[in-house]
User: Which sequence fits this backbone?
């Protein structure tokens, strides 16, 4: 089981790494491929939107076609797209390859969590496994900046994508370790639901950057998605049993809002360090090292211990408020700022907050789910996180691209506004957490309900 967990975490690390690994390389990509600022945001958003939009479909694939088969398919698509992106010579090809990576990630990421939750019963064992998986996910996001900075400085921005190829091939060689898992291949796949969900999210993300027509089109497509799921889908991407469970739907709203905060922060922190403080790619990557180490320490050691002693909603709310304080501090960044006060101090609060809220929130939205809906629950959780990140980034770029100018002081003002807005959204996460059902870790013998029944009420 330890080998399987290591393989799942390696795949998840690679998927999450590619959310942030391009951030430090953005200035180099902009220079090499002559990308305008709005197009530059789509180097990240093309990945995040296809990833987030197709996660519902990817999660359902694991339920219908078996865990091992879906895991291997997603891994192969992700690896091939990474190779294409590393060889791209125009911004259009790079953005298309990033979208392809997102497709592979949308298949792969829910499969990792589905295998994990299927293999571990609810209780402390599952919490420990999810804590490792979550810590690796968070570390992938933070380590992406360090790895991306080193590779960009000493090799090329292309290497940040090409590095996935040997890792992907190594994971494919070990894929037989993954349990085959149940499958219901006779059921029809809800392709229309997947297309309307992805199209709706993409249109919304494009629209919030300045196109009301796209916003309207996105709302229409998401309305069609809801209609398809409620009336026409034989096997809905979001089963009704998940929709009616308060912990799941409310928890995923909180997850979406948290994703809109914690995912875009890498974009703004990277640009702040390079444009305001004048750091190079490698120094920028190294400056993110405390984020990585603190997040892993809190997520692996502190949070599971606290989850046996305090309710999940208390930890989620506390983590969100601590993170909000960190972002308010981060908003004060200015040219000439010292690393300790400009980056390290806020990093302590941001990492402590993120480490505290992510594991209990993930456990909340995956608890009490029957085995046949485990993939759907994983897909829904990942969709909320990634769609929140894509929509949050597009909205924050649009809202902070106003006055200020292109000099370091003007850029610091714009980035500071983004951090203030992120802090406000985290305060919203804390408010939502108060309405979540109270839950804390128990051993299987003392659990009130077996898996699949806890949220049936």
Assistant:
């Amino acid at each position: 089981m330890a080998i399987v967990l290591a393989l799942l975490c390696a795949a998840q690390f690679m998927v999450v790494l590619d959310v942030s690994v391009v951030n430090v390389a953005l200035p180099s990509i902009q220079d090499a491929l002559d990308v305008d600022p709005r197009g530059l945001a789509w180097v990240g958003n093309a990945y995040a939107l296809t990833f987030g939009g197709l996660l519902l479909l990817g999660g359902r694939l694991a339920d219908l076609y078996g865990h091992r088969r879906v895991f291997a398919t997603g891994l192969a698509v992700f690896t091939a797209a990474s190779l294409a992106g590393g060889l791209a010579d125009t911004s259009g090809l790079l953005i298309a390859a990033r979208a392809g990576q997102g497709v592979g990630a949308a298949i792969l990421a829910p499969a990792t969590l589905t295998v994990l939750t299927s293999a571990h019963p609810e209780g402390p064992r599952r919490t420990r496994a999810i804590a490792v998986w979550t810590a690796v996910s968070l570390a992938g996001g933070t380590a992406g900046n360090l790895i991306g900075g080193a590779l960009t400085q000493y090799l090329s921005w292309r290497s940040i994508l090409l590095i996935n190829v040997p890792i992907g091939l190594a994971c494919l060689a070990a894929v037989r370790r993954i349990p085959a898992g149940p499958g219901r291949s006779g059921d029809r796949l809800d392709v229309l639901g997947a297309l309307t969900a992805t199209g709706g999210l993409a249109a919304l993300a494009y629209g919030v950057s300045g196109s009301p027509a796209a916003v309207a089109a996105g709302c229409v497509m998401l309305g069609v998605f809801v209609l398809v799921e409620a009336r026409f889908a034989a096997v809905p991407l979001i089963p009704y049993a998940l929709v009616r469970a308060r912990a799941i739907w409310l928890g995923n709203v909180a997850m979406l809002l948290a994703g809109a905060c914690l995912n875009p922060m890498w974009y703004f922190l990277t640009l702040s360090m390079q444009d305001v403080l004048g750091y190079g790619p490698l120094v920028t990557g190294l400056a993110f090292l405390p984020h990585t180490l603190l997040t892993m320490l809190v997520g692996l050691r502190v949070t599971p211990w606290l989850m046996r002693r305090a309710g999940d909603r208390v930890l989620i709310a506390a983590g969100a408020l601590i993170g909000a304080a960190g972002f308010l501090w981060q908003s004060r960044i200015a040219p000439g700022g010292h690393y300790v006060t400009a980056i390290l101090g806020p990093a302590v609060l941001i990492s402590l907050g993120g480490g505290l809220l992510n594991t209990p929130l993930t456990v909340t939205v995956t608890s009490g789910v029957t085995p046949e809906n485990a993939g759907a629950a994983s897909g829904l959780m990942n969709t909320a996180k990634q769609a929140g990140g894509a929509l949050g980034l597009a909205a924050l770029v649009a809202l902070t691209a106003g006055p200020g100018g292109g000099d370091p002081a003007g850029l610091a003002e714009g980035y500071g506004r983004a951090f203030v807005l992120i802090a406000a959204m985290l305060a919203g996460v804390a408010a939502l957490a108060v309405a979540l059902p109270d839950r804390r870790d128990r051993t299987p013998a003392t659990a009130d309900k077996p898996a699949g029944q806890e949220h049936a009420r």
Observations:
- Confidence is low (pLDDT under 50) at residues 443-457.
